[in-house]
Structures are given as structure tokens and as C-alpha cells.
């Protein structure tokens, strides 16, 4: 499924989030080291971003580094951070040519200085772009984000800036690092794992999941278009019954 003839371009998800998993196993299966797998993963990111733009998806969130990933061997962590710095500086011109606006979610202040600098630089240079927003989840974990949100809201309560009744679903969303970004309609995870690994727990309340049994470097246009096709053939009921959904449509 690589052509778009089966895709309803008026009904693509506005926001797709992806857990890019399996670089290490891909590398192992090709007799290479893990960092080689991560470099291959960057190529898959490039193709994914191109496909998302073609599909007119407005937000693409990629889980690039979790809070828990710091526990990996130091050599791998350093390699990943270097890859991030290099990829950002290599891609920024092309992002501008293609109308890609870059944003980041997660504990950005906890990243090495050079990563923060290249990230800030790319965010600044691409901030006026309008085709698609690429959101990189870096040093991200949902439990961290939710904990920070609770702290922020508690402070507002203590200072009497808000009362208990002001605590709503919307207020919580506004105090997460994803503020301003719509919740993803579709979440894709590669590598055959069927878990969420501390990603966007609040935001995926009604998200459709697609789990693929391929490693991230093998994810390309065909698989992405296939996942969107799968999404478009599901009935999203949001707690209602099928007949109600069909009336609403
Ligand atoms: C995903 O691939 C990339 C990151 C988590 C940074 P992995 O590195 O987790 O690859 P596997 O899961 O070990 O194969
Ligand atoms: C999830 O992958 C995090 C990213 C893709 C950045 P992991 O490989 O870290 O997840 P687990 O450890 O298999 O749950
Ligand atoms: Mg993994």
C-alpha cells in the first residue's frame, strides 16, 4: 500500500505519534553495532516526515529518547546525543524548505548543553513554518510530565490563583509539555513490542494504536500509509454506540 488511492485525504489524523523502537535489534540482525542502527533510524525519520507532510498530517510526534533511556550504556547514550546534534544541524535547511516547524517535549533542561543549543537553534529557525509540526520527545516520560503538571497546579492553588473547581481536563492539558498540541489520533509502535513505555499517557486516552512487527529502520512510506489506512477503517466511538456515530457523520 504505497499509493494514496485508498486514503481519504480529508480524514487523515491531525496528529500521529510514533514510538520508534527496534534500532538495536535491527543492527544486531545485520551484524552491526547499536549506534549504526540508530543512524539508520534517522533515515527512517526523514522518510516518515516526508510521508507525513505528503499525507497532510499536521503534527508528528516522535519518541526519540525517554527518561529511562539514560540507564543505557554510556557509550550508547553519548552516541545518541551526538546523533541528535548532528541530525538537527544537517536537517534544519531541509526542514525550512519543506515547511517543517520543530518543537520539543520533555525535560529539555536535562539534556547536555550542546543538544539544548542545537535544539533551540532549530526550533528558532523553523518557528514560522506551517506545513507540519515535528515534535521530538526528548528526555521525555509521561510520569515526569504529569508530576510536573501536578506541581504547577499545586503552586497555583497555594497562591490562590485558582480554586479547586478550576481544575479541569483542559487545565491539566494546558500544563503538560504538549500544551497547544492536539491529542494524537493515531499511535504507531514498531519492533513488535505492545507497550506504551511511559509515552503520552494522558494524551492517548482515545488514541488508536497500530503495532507493527518491523524494526524502526525498516519503517517507510508503505508502512506509514498502511497504518493510516488501518486507522481510517476503524470506528472511533468515544464511549457511544455505533448508531450514534453514524448519525453524527
Ligand atoms: C529505539 O530503538 C531507539 C531508542 C530508544 C533511542 P532501541 O534502541 O530501543 O532498539 P531495541 O528496542 O533495543 O531493538
Ligand atoms: C521507547 O523505547 C522509547 C523510545 C522509543 C525513545 P524503549 O526501547 O526504551 O522501550 P522499552 O524499554 O522496550 O519499553
Ligand atoms: Mg527498544
Structural features, described:
With 249 residues, this protein is of the alpha/beta class. It has one domain: 3-Layer(aba) Sandwich (Undecaprenyl pyrophosphate synthetase), CATH 3.40.1180.10. Helix content is 43%, strand content 14%. The chain is built from eight helices and six strands. Helix 4 links the parallel strand 3 and strand 4. Helix 1 crosses helix 2, helix 2 runs parallel beside helix 3 and helix 3 runs parallel beside helix 4. The mean pLDDT is 97. The site of one 3-methylbut-3-enyl trihydrogen diphosphate has 11 residues, from helix 1.
Give a short overview.
With 249 residues, the protein is α/β, with parallel strands linked by helices.
Give the SSE layout.
Blueprint: E1 15-19, H1 23-29, H2 34-54, E2 59-66, H3 74-97, E3 100-105, H4 113-126, E4 132-140, H5 142-158, H6 169-174, E5 186-189, E6 208-211, H7 221-232, H8 242-248
Parallel strand pairs: 1-2, 1-5, 2-4, 3-4, 5-6
Bound molecules: 3-methylbut-3-enyl trihydrogen diphosphate (IPE) (2 copies) and magnesium ion.
